[in-house]
Amino acid sequence: MKQIAERRAQIAGFTIALCLGFAAFAQNVTVIRDATILTITHGKIEHGSVVMRGGKIVAVGLDAQVSVPSGATVIDGAGKYVTPGIIDTHSHTSVDGSVNEISLPNSGAVRIGDVLTNEDVNVYRQLAGGTTTALVLHGSANSIGGQSQIVKWKYGRPLSEWFIPDAPRTIKFALGENPKSSNFRPPPGIPAQYPATRMGVEEVIRKSFLDAKDYMAKWDEYDARKKRGENPIPPRRDLMLDVMADILRGKVDVHSHCYRTDEILMLLNLSDELGFKVRELHHVLEGYKVAREIAAHGVGGGTFIDWWGFKAEAYDAIPYNVAMMENAGVVTVVNSDSDELARRLNLDAAKAIKYGGLSEDEALKLCTINGAKLLRLDHRLGSIEVGKDADLVIWTGHPFSTYSRVETTFIEGDVYFDRTKDLAMRAELAKEKRDRLKKEADEEGKNKKGKKEPANG
Amino acid sequence: MRSKWTPVLPILLLLLPIAAQAQAPGVYAITGATVHPANGPDIVNGTVLIRDGLIEAVGANVAIPPDAAVIDAKGAHVYPGLIDAQTSLGFPSARPQTRRRGGGGQRGAQQEQLPETSPAYIAMRNVNLTDDDIDAARGIGVTTIVTAPAFGIFNGQSAVLNLGTGTAEERVIKSPAAMQISFNPRPAWTFPDSLMGVIAYIRQTMLDAQWYSSARAVYDKNPTVGPRPETSESLEAMQPVIAKNLPVVFVADGELMIRRAQKIASEFGLRYIISGGRQGYRFADDLKAANVPVLVSVKWPIAPTSKEDREEQPLRVIRDRQLAPTTPSVFVKSGVTFALVSGAGKTGDFIPGIRKAMDNGLSADDALKATTIWPARIFGVDRQLGSLEHGKIANVVVSDKPIFDKEAKITREFVDGREVRLPSPDKKAGESAPSAVDGTWRLTVRSSQGDVAVTVTLHNENGALTGTFSGDKGSGDIRNGSFDGTTVEFTVAVKGQSETESSDWVFHGTLDGTSMSGSVTTSLGTVQFTGSKGR
Q: Which chain B residues are within 8 Å of A182, Cβ to Cβ?
């Protein structure tokens, strides 16, 4: 109960905080001076400066080498650390309604991008943990789930601004227990749905691609006949087959949920057989056993560092998985799959130093540039370099210390979280809430009185 | 325009001899009242002359013909009949309990697999208005409704109906009025069971309708081109929609849902109307820019009954609940075309809901327009309805006090120029009476990972349950709720620590006084729950 009460208090605090929003959204120039800058790709700069303008990083280097443009907002970073925004390639935050369209073995026609909400307080909490970019995925109830959506957590801004214009399209696949058992005990009156085994999952995926190839051939034939001057009946467009075809054309990246070696190898073999590419294996708790094979396919791995045992297929996990995959040449990231874990992915990355001996630089990549690479956005995200998006986080200390806190989170140069301002606005918002509740209570009291009168009279 | 009458006309012709036998509309002169014509200034001590079902004259100096029955309405107020432009009167409010799987694979997205409703469902043919429905509406001055079922996704083709005497066909002002689409996920495990599935389903149906017309066009030109395309009643019914001849009414309440509807509309170039719109105050200027009419539901959000529940709600929710009733006045300022409708609310809550909008800045004059001439314009029936002027259909209401006053009572009412029966005073539509299931329930779900507490607040509307849930597994609105007196059913979307635990929980419970128990079907199996009603 105490826990619940505490959580409620927390929720209330954060909920209140989100209502005002911070961002000034002017194309102001901001400079962070005299901070320790963890650039990710070019090492650590002590007493460094970063200049943000027009949403981009326009200068980074030693204080002495970076001049402060006139009119710039200057933030004193003495004793503080600056990192790029943290990237979470496995999120389900900010989905309105169910994250699963559970009814079909292949629900590829549905799109997470259609149902995002910009009112999920978890987004704000994640900004408070330095997370700025996420791949919001469909759930894992189906062998082939819905199309997923890469977003920046621009909390307080319209959803249209959350989408990254040049981000690739993505789709969720899922292997193993979830797709094979999500449907095996439906409510009375609804028959169990295929597939019920791992074999069936494979078959659903294979069949979907084969159907897509037929579909593409039909359209090719139609186009050819049109070219010959004929006027044939057009094939029917099918949203599910459209997306399967776009996977085959390399226009949609496959992000697949998986746990066990057998299913991982199954998917890699299937991708060879059918000619599609897998971009990232998610969870992939047994990835360390087949890291070479994964690397050879050019596939990335997104995993939990120390979260396992929550079901039978998650028993063979080890905390060394991250380091072993990374060392085998797999581009590896730590994932959240959770509203809460997404607030501290920096600490999960840190654990890869203890478990597997990654260097500090390598570990930092697990929650920054590697994620950017797997999302094909490393040209604009994941490190502090001139020309990249000004998605920056100021920490009170090294992000690998449990004592460090996020002070300010920027996305494209605008402030989306600021601890000082958050604390300052709480009282004001708490007052608004009190006033509004009081107003309601007063009105209710009046109405009750009003209703009684005619009865008495 | 002619096409909309084609299905109606033969029926009307058949019924003509019967209609002729009904009591002929007479000649009435309502005198001495303050006339509120809705299209111009009030007329003190005015006269409204009704003849043969139409309004013959309105004014301060109308000569009263010798054949007129004179109704002395001194001190009373005369209005055009109110139009409630979003109802589901005459249809069951809960979906019929048929469950069917959506079918597998690529055929899953096809429209034929929705058994409940479809684009081909014609409200005019199926509407079943009871005397109680009609009395309740008339009792508050509503003489015209727009109606369609509320369940399903493609709710069907709505109809504008006069609440007069006679057969359903005689009541029709316009059918189809619009194609009504709701974002209602279907029960779990039945496509589409998620909001994103619903959107994909709507999108696929629009694509199919486009395909249908192009495939048909090719085939009609040259039948030897290949196998003939299938004939589909649903896709046939969608043709006027994709040709922009028939507007779509999207039932969408919040800003996010409205924007989703707008996205679909722009993707397929639809003519459309938004219904619900209670969060319109947040982005009235955008709605104005999009030039989209909004049917604003006056079923304003209500606070939870328990003080504790209220205090637990985030400020955002409280603020929204208090600002929603400002939507109509904000719309007037921004110039958004709108009407006030009862929407998902009961008829008896319509006038109190309008009053609340007036308490929040809407003038009485605009409230009247928003329930008469504006909805008439939105549905393209303003040449027939919506104001008291020469040549319009004689839907006329006499009220002893200004019609939106708390104590106002409708004393006389004319529909199509015939005086209609009004409900006896004791039967006057009250505000919704609570049902046994209404209230806050504290439920305990015995899940495989231990007990999970869920608090649900339920509200029964003729068998359809709405409400909210909160607890260890997140919070939100319940979906697919139904209540038949003892059996309760509803779905909540729970959020777990990890996505693997996130899914729909479908509650099937039995009510026993203030306790409830039953089963919860989750993606990981079926478990039991028990619970009781809070204060």
A: 503, 523
